[in-house]
Amino acid sequence: NVCTKFQSVRLDRGRMKVFLLVLFACLGAASAQFNRFSQFDSAVNRGLKIRGVDVSAPPAKGIQELYFEQVLDHFNGQNNATWKQRYFVNDQFWDGKGPVLLMIGGEGPISSAYVQEHFITYNYAQQYNALLVALEHRFYGESQPLDASKTENLAYLSSEQALADLAWFREQYGASVGAADKKWIAFGGSYPGCLSGWLRQKYPSSFYGSFAASAPVDAKLDFFEYFEVVERSIGEKCAADFQGASEKLWEMAQTADGRSQIKDLFNLCADLPSDALSLANFMMGLTDPIAEGVQYNEDRGNPSAITPICDAMANATDKIQGWASIVAQTQQGQCMDASYESAVQSLVTPGAARSWTYQTCNEFSFFQTTDSTKQPFSKFVPLKYYYALCDDAFGTVSSCYCVL
Q1: Does position 171 have pLDDT exceeding 90, yes or no?
Q2: pLDDT class for 303, splitting at 50, 70, 90?
C-alpha cells in the first residue's frame, strides 16, 4: 500500500456542532437550495437520466423486485448477522439453459431499468436466452445493512465486502433458481466496472467472464488527470476560455466586493465565504457540469455536451457570465450553497454521497484536484480540500489515506 500522511485542515468542532444544530432546525427553509453533493448519483444513473429514463419508476410488468438474505461480514465467521439486499430479475428471455448476466450496482440505487433495454445486456439476453439480474451495492439505495449515519457502521462498506456479496449471491441465488451450473457473466460501468473486473480476478471459478466499461481500476490519491482529460476533450480554445475565467474568479474571490459579485453571477444563496475550503467547494460546483458534459458528450438528450458548453463560452463577451449561464442550467432556479459547511452536512446525512465519499476517503481516493497545469480550472482545488472533507465528515478514517 502507498500511504500519504497529512496535516489535516479541520473545522472548529464547537462551531461545527452549533452549525449542524441550526441547519437541522432550518431544513425546511433550505429546500430551495442545492450544493454539489445534494444531487449526487451514480455515473450509470446520471447517464440513464440524461436519456430520459425514470429510475424511480416501479418495475415494469414481468420484472421482479426482490430481497436477498445477505451476510453482513464475509470475513468474520463469528458474526452471523444478515441483512436484506435488493435485486431485480428479468427472466422473459431465459430458457433455463442460458447464462446469467449480472448487472452490478455501484455508488447509487439500482432500479428495474438495469434489467431492461437500456443496456447491452438486454440484447445479449435476447440473443443467448439469458437470465438478467441486477444486484444493489451495500449501503446504497434500499440495501442498507446498518444505520449509515454512524461512521463505525461504515466499516462494513468496502469493495472487498461488495465482491463477496456478489459471490455469495451467485452461489445462493443461483442454486435457488437452478442456475448454479450456468455461466455467470458480470457487467458494470465506472465503479461497478471496477467491481466487475475485480470479481472475475478474485472469484474466477464462479464467474465465467466480466465486462468492465470505463473502469478506473487503478486507484490513485491525487487524480489530477481527471481535469486534464476535460481540457483535452473541450479543445484548446474552449479550455483557454475557462482558464481565463478561472483566473479572474480567483482574483475576484480574494476581496469581499469580488465575492459579492460572484454571489450575484452564480446565484449563490449567500456571499461566498473567503476560506480556502469554501473556495475549493465552490469551484468544484462550477466544474461539475463541464466534466459531465465531457463524460456524457452527445449522449441522447444531454443538454451539457461539449459543443453547447464551448459555444456558450465562445459567444459570451464576459466569459464568467458565459460560465454562469452553463451552471444555471443545472440549478433549475435554485440558489447554490457553496459553503464548505454545507458540503460537510451533505456528507453527514445518510445517502449515496456519504457512502461514496466514505469509500473514496477510506479505500480509493480518486480525488479530482486542480494540481496539474494542464487543466482549465486554475488552482482552486488542492488535495487538502479532500483531506478536510474526509476528516470532517467521518472523523479520522485512518492515520493515512491509502491507495491500494
Answers
A1: yes
A2: low
Q: Distance of CA 88 to CAs 64, 170, 172, 192, 207, Å?
A: 6, 14, 15, 16, 19
Cα distances from 253 to residues 50, 114, 135, in angstroms, run 33, 43, 45
User: In a 10 Å sphere around its CB, with 0-12 CB exposed, 13-18 middle and 19+ buried, how is residue 9 labelled?
Assistant: middle
- Contact call for residues 252 and 268 (beta carbons, < 8 A): no
Judge contact between 9 and 384, C-beta under 8 A: yes
Identify whether the C-beta of residue 324 lies closer than 8 Å to the C-beta of residue 24: no
Query: What angle do the packed helices 256-265 and 319-331 form, to 10 degrees?
Result: 50
Task: Name the burial class of residue 371, with classes exposed (0-12), middle (13-18) and buried (19+) by CB atoms within 10 angstroms of its CB.
Answer: middle
Is the pTM for the entire model greater than 0.85? yes
Tell me if 370 sits within 8 A of 227, measured CB to CB: yes
DSSP state of 207: -
Name the burial class of residue 108, with classes exposed (0-12), middle (13-18) and buried (19+) by CB atoms within 10 angstroms of its CB: buried
pLDDT at 23: 32
Query: Is the confidence at residue 12, as pLDDT, over 80?
Result: no
What tens digit of pLDDT does each residue of 361-377 get?
999 999 999 999 999 99
Taking the CB of residue 119, how many other CB atoms lie within 10 A of it?
21
Kindly report, residue by residue over 106-160, the tens digit of the pLDDT: 999 999 999 999 999 999 999 999 999 999 999 999 999 999 999 999 999 999 9
3 state DSSP class of 223: coil
* Residue keyed to cell 432546525: 25
Phi, psi of 245 (to 5 degrees): -65, -40
> Coil, strand, or helix at residue 399?
coil
- Cα separation, 363 vs 16, in Å, equals 26
Instruction: State how far Cα 62 lies from the chain centre.
Output: 30
Compute the distance between CA of residue 66 and CA of residue 99 in angstroms, rounded to an integer. 20
